[in-house]
Specification:
Strand order of the largest sheet: 1-3-4-11-6-9
Structural class: alpha+beta
Number of domains: 2
CATH topology of the largest domain: Jelly Rolls
Shape: globular
Number of helices: 12
Length: about 325
């Protein structure tokens, strides 16, 4: 069943606040900044396809900014995927910036800060996908945020068309809706694989090697001595070859390793799987507790100690 939110249903003086509240409630907490001082007009239509939500948005020029403080106050573990159906947008996340035109698809992570802005009125369809569902199909999704998938490519066009069509569905059959939602995620994952394959030295073997290296790192996060040479040896390649693989995905081996360690630590604390922060630090390969605390706060905007009490409370 479709749910409709329209600013014209409330007093003009309350419209912007109404819009901001609905976006925070339906997607994630973020600052909403009106680009132009004029009577505000926006509308949103939302429906569900299994575990994912599909929303059509028609809105005045806006700037949305999710800061570390927002993540601290209101954690979120979803991916958002948008396809523009009108207007132009620009998104920034994790040091990557993409300019988006009509038909382009982009993914961003609600667990990380982002800025998404529109200089003029825009229309889009926005998917909200649970983290587990996205990572099951695209294990490196966290490193593909803010990278535009052109709607002018065959798979990009297919993904965009499926997302736009999904917004028009109003299915009463929950099983069918869930299957359609899963199919859309599969197509998006395939579109990302093809769209970003050109950034690798070669598709195929080297892409597979990168995935294997990432899997090896994830399974050895607790090894504080894990480094480039050991990972390269496990993959039977040179350190320089390994470095080139990660460089083509926009990062370095050690930066990717530390990002994974911080993400694993954050998940462990969020899920209440530790009683002490030192347990988390050691289990994720941090030999220096002070370094762990500084890095954690720099990324998430708060100390890891602040997550212990809520995590323990949730376990009772």
């Amino acid at each position: 069943m479709h749910k409709h939110f329209d600013t014209s249903t409330v007093r003009e003086s309350d419209r912007f606040a109404f819009w901001h509240e609905e976006l925070c409630r339906n997607f994630c907490r973020a600052d909403s900044i009106q680009v132009r001082s004029e009577p505000f007009d926006a509308r949103l239509t939302k429906s569900e396809l299994g575990s994912i939500s599909v929303s059509s948005i028609d809105c005045e020029p806006m700037r949305y900014q999710r800061a570390p403080g927002d993540i601290c106050i209101s954690p979120s573990e979803d991916f958002l995927l948008s396809v523009l159906t009108g207007g132009v947008g620009q998104i920034e996340q994790q040091g990557r910036t993409s300019l988006l035109r009509e038909g382009d698809v982009v993914m961003y992570d609600t667990a990380q800060p982002f800025v998404y802005e529109f200089a003029n009125r825009y229309r889009m369809v926005l998917l909200k996908v649970p983290r587990r569902a996205m990572l099951a199909r695209a294990p490196d999704a966290e490193h593909r945020t803010a990278l535009a998938i052109s709607g002018r490519t065959p798979l990009g066009g297919l993904a965009g068309t499926m997302i736009r069509s999904a917004a028009e569905l109003d299915l009463e059959d929950g099983v069918a809706a869930a299957r359609i939602g899963a199919s859309i995620i599969d197509v998006i994952a395939a579109a990302m694989d093809v769209s970003f394959a050109d950034t690798a030295p070669t598709a195929g073997r080297q892409a597979s090697l990168l995935f294997k290296a990432q899997a090896y790192i994830r399974s050895h996060l607790d090894d504080a001595d894990l480094g480039v040479e050991r990972i390269a040896a496990a993959m039977h390649v040179s350190s320089s070859t390994l470095a080139r693989l990660f460089a083509c995905s926009g990062t370095t081996v050690m930066r990717w390793l530390w990002d994974e360690r911080l993400s694993a630590a954050h998940r462990a604390l969020l899920e209440g799987r530790a009683k002490q922060v030192t347990e988390v630090a050691l289990s994720c390969g941090f030999s220096s507790f002070s370094h762990f605390s500084r890095s954690f706060k720099a990324r998430y905007g708060h100390s890891p100690n602040t997550m212990i009490k809520p995590a323990r409370a949730r376990s009772h």
